[in-house]
Amino acid sequence: MINRKYREMLNGKSVIRQLSEFATARGAEIGYENVFDFSLGNPSVPVPQEFNDTMIRLINEAAPTDLHGYSQSLGIPAVRAKIATSLSKRFGLPYTADHIFMASGAAGAIAHAVRCVTEPGDEVLTFAPYFPEYNPYINHSGAVLKVVPPNTKDFQINFEAFREMLTEKVMAVLINTPNNPSGVAYSEETVKKLAEILTEKSEEYGHEIYIISDEPYREITFDNKEIVYPSKFYKYTLSCYSFSKSLSIPGQRIGYVAIHPECPDAKDMVVMCGQISRGIGHNCPTALIQLAVADTCDLTADLSVYETNMNLIYDELKDLGFEVVRPGGTFYIFPKALEEDAKAFCEKALKHDLVFVPADSFGCPGYFRMAYCIETEKVKRALPVIRKFVETEYPNR
Amino acid sequence: MINRKYREMLNGKSVIRQLSEFATARGAEIGYENVFDFSLGNPSVPVPQEFNDTMIRLINEAAPTDLHGYSQSLGIPAVRAKIATSLSKRFGLPYTADHIFMASGAAGAIAHAVRCVTEPGDEVLTFAPYFPEYNPYINHSGAVLKVVPPNTKDFQINFEAFREMLTEKVMAVLINTPNNPSGVAYSEETVKKLAEILTEKSEEYGHEIYIISDEPYREITFDNKEIVYPSKFYKYTLSCYSFSKSLSIPGQRIGYVAIHPECPDAKDMVVMCGQISRGIGHNCPTALIQLAVADTCDLTADLSVYETNMNLIYDELKDLGFEVVRPGGTFYIFPKALEEDAKAFCEKALKHDLVFVPADSFGCPGYFRMAYCIETEKVKRALPVIRKFVETEYPNR
Questions:
Q1: CA distance B24 to chain A (A)
Q2: β-strand B123-127 against B144-148: which pairing, if any?
Q3: Minimal CA–CA distance to A330: which of A258, A246, A251, A252?
Q4: Which residues touch B314 (CB under 8 Å, ≥6 apart)?
Q5: Topology at the third CATH level for domain A4-47+302-393
Q6: For A55-95, how does the pLDDT look when each residue is reduced to its tens digit (9 = 90+)?
Q7: Who contacts B256 (Cβ-Cβ below 8 Å, separation ≥6)?
Q8: Which residues 130-149 in chain A show a CB within 8 A of chain B?
């Protein structure tokens, strides 16, 4: 008998995936250039040439056993050291190689982090709107994901609801700043207040409450602002990073867990991640890609296009009267739909070949997500289409 | 509170790893060339140049979004198709892309396969001697691994013990041929008898009993013999493959699950593997490496050195009077120790700078494993050292 839980999941296709498939199919009909596909968060800017050059250099020059041999189970030591140095310089925390565990992207990093700081039945809180893949990431570890309702005013944290849900059973809080899908980056005030509450409640409950910080968009911030790095404000933080967006290499599945250097047991927790790997069959990211990101971890692709696109779309949406918070980073924007049912709204948009994602599965009904990791030229062509869609479908607003 | 189960595992270092670390440390003292390190199963022959050339071609020629973009969750369709074609040609079974799930090595493949065909509490049987990593691979999925005692006569299956342990709770049987650590390849007679018993018991119990076939050594067979491919004899078989040994690229973490084309629900099971990935945070092997193995999946590194080494060692061990079964493949040999306590035997060997692994953790006390994936020159130098060790430590045999 095949596993019933996974068999049942066969019917539960993600909305994003369905819409993306629709966009592809529609593109085959009318030309993909005529489908304004804002469904998928797939980086569109090219990888930096230095990354490809580094890979070729490694292939040509590295000893075969270094390049193709087993990586140590926590990651290649020299790679972990380079990443620690880079983080220390940037954020002023004394990371060493011993605080870094190499993982296959943020998904892999979160899978390890959650198993490290929870046991089956423990609760993990996250904040709406949230990335729906957190459900399988967390629930399959045996922990239970609970979602704090959104603060729709500015998409910072709804602290009132958070305090209510932060019971003794909560062992970790999973945050994501800048945020998919809202595009909002947490303010220093928000992160400080979160840290204060967690410190207070950890003491009250007699156990640590960890922050698992999902940071794939750390490098995509707007208005020349640096991310408010959660680890700087709370030592029980596990930063889960991915190079997918910063280097535009999501297919290469590379990231890491960086545990705060002053977190008690930080080094043991990194070794525990190695044990967790054995159980989930992960066993290290690809050696070649580990070595390549070690030499390019201070670079990014040219990410400026995302800010350009954001400004174009934000201005147009405001002009059209949408209720929308200006993103602080990522390549998402998260406006309120023009009717209560965001699914109905998005279905009407589809008739205009505009592919938006209704936010019900992000824990925030009534809103929709636009992923603008597409060419600026196409964004510009989309704006009059959006205007026409709004004027046609919602003439009497 | 950090997870207690994984914290406790911090103390449970693998014997192989400990011995390998000893060999490295001893090598720093006396020169690694003077340590006869038969501990680690790390391929020693170089990757085929075609593999490196293919990677460079892909980096230079593929569109960045093809090369670096997200892979589909089951693997890149063209890669799955090429692997299916290769398997079909070789083994005469009608595999298509829909029967292939790309995974990060055999560890990743087994992690998916076991979750696909078992539910928590179900039993999986394997046969001693067995690869000790099966314990975390299976147990962390929620299933329970039970080990059938060895048939030390020829290291084929101990069918009597197997029949006794094959209760209604058993949902899968995990086999590994050619075998780590025995080096023995199952005969056609063995695989046929296994298939017969499973067919009979599946009917009796009213549920399928799957074979999960761990096949990283499929290409390393001796005496010009082809592997007896389990799927040819039993349609409820999930082949778990790794390119680590065939192409000498263990660091690149690439393999697949190939589900027998006539297995009911085979295609659904492949899609289920994609769902399992979401829960364990795996999300596809590296795109570059997927594309590279697709173009080189019919190649192997020059694996002939392993047979050369095996013959040298086997002949010497026989001449010294060891009880040992001649391997049919892999780069392992599995002699009986010269005293009952194989750990004591291996400790005495260490004094002669011979690093052998006692087989207690392989479920076969009294035996030891030698991994001969080292230079033939070093094997030749090791032979008189082994002779001297035996004559010194066991003079009165």
A1: 14
A2: parallel
A3: A246
A4: B324, B326, B327, B333
A5: Aspartate Aminotransferase, domain 1 (3.90.1150)
A6: 999 999 998 888 999 888 999 999 999 999 999 999 999 99
A7: B75, B80, B83, B100, B101, B102, B103, B109, B240, B241
A8: 133, 136-137, 139-141
- For residue A152, the distance in angstroms to the closest alpha carbon of chain B comes to 29
Residue A187 CB contacts under 8 Å (≥ 6 apart), including other chains: A156, A228
Dihedral in degrees, nearest 10, Cα atoms B340, B345, B347, B348: 140
CA distance B246 to chain A (A): 12
Q: Please list every residue in chain A whose beta carbon sits closer than 8 Å to the beta carbon of residue B7.
A: 268, 272
Residues 64 to 83 of B: which have CB under 8 A from any A CB?
64-65, 67-71
Q: Structural domain boundaries of chain A?
A: 4-47+302-393, 51-294
pLDDT, position B15: 82
CATH topology for A51-294 is Aspartate Aminotransferase; domain 2 (3.40.640)
Any chain B CB within 8 A of the CB of A269? yes
- Please check whether residue A363 is in contact with residue A150, taking contact to mean a CB–CB distance below 8 angstroms: yes
The pLDDT of residue B33 is: 93
A52 vs B71: CB contact, 8 Å cut-off?
A: no
The answer to whether domain A4-47+302-393 and domain A51-294 are alike in fold is no
Q: In Å, how far are A92, B285, B389, B391 from B384, measured between CA atoms?
A: 57, 44, 8, 10
In angstroms, the separation between the Cα of residue B57 and the nearest Cα of chain A is: 10
CATH class of the B49-294 domain in this structure: alpha beta
What residues of chain A, 28 to 67, have a C-beta less than 8 Å from chain B? 42-44, 46-47, 52, 55-56, 59-60, 64-65, 67
Quote the tokens at residue A109. 């990093």
Please give the helix or strand (H or E) that residue B259 lies within, else none: strand B255-259
Going through B151-236 in order, the beta strands assigned E by DSSP cover 170-176, 210-214
Cross-chain CB nearest to A253 (options B43, B46, B284): B284
pTM for this structure? 0.96
User: A120 CA to chain B: closest CA distance, Å?
Assistant: 9
List pLDDT tens digits, range B65-77: 889 998 889 999 9
Contacting B residues, span 358-397, partner chain A, CB-CB under 8 Å: none
What is the distance between the alpha carbons of residues B207 and A1, in angstroms, rounded to a whole number?
6
pLDDT in the model for residue B152:
97
In a 10 Å sphere around its CB, with 0-12 CB exposed, 13-18 middle and 19+ buried, how is residue A377 labelled?
Answer: exposed
Per-residue pLDDT band at A343 (split at 50, 70, 90): very high
Residue of A nearest to B9 (CA): A275
Among partner residues A9, A137, A265, which is closest to B275 by beta-carbon distance? Answer: A9
Which stretches of chain B score pLDDT less than 50?
Answer: none
User: Alpha helices of B129-174 — where are they, by DSSP H?
Assistant: 134-139, 159-165
Query: What is the per-residue pLDDT for B17?
Result: 79
What length does chain B have?
Answer: 397
Chain A residues in contact with B8 (beta carbon < 8 A): none
Q: Are B263 and B247 in contact (CB under 8 A)?
A: no
Give B56's contacts in chain A (Cβ within 8 Å).
Answer: 56, 59-60
pLDDT reported for residue B383: 98
